[in-house]
């Protein structure tokens, strides 16, 4: 019985159409030199290391500033204690001051690299960092003003 089942499967396999023949070279696994290398930019297209670190720091501080703003707004809506909101405002102010500092450093670095390398691609970076600088200074002034007003004036 088993032999009959094997013969039936062999007959079914024989009735299938044959696949086109492949070259031996195409079926081989490519060597390590033929494999695709990861796409990295050449050294001439990369940003300088100091500007890359400053950019990463400004991105990190921008996201933490955004998270602190959202946390303050939701806390204000949910009725956090006044001391907690004042703490959030002081964190927001210090974060905004640090962001303004690093974006100012990035602007100075971009000016240096424009003069040194004569690449005007850094003008786009300067515009972005100026926008970040203005937002961070305005958020710092806003948070310090609200914090001062929430503490009240004592005469």
Q: In DSSP terms, counting alpha (H) and pi (I) runs of 4 or more, how many helices?
A: 5
Binned strand content: under 5%
The pLDDT mean sits at: 82
| Ends distance | 107 Å
Concise overview:
The chain is mainly α. It has helices at 2-15, 24-27, 49-78, 82-117, 122-151.
Written overview of the protein:
The longest helix is centred in the middle third of the chain and has 36 residues, at 82-117. The mean pLDDT is 82. It is built from five helices and no strands. The protein is flat and about 105 Å long. It has 155 residues and is mostly helical.
Comma- or semicolon-separated keywords:
155 residues; mainly alpha; flat
Q: What's the arrangement of secondary structure elements?
A:
Elements: H1 2-15, H2 24-27, H3 49-78, H4 82-117, H5 122-151
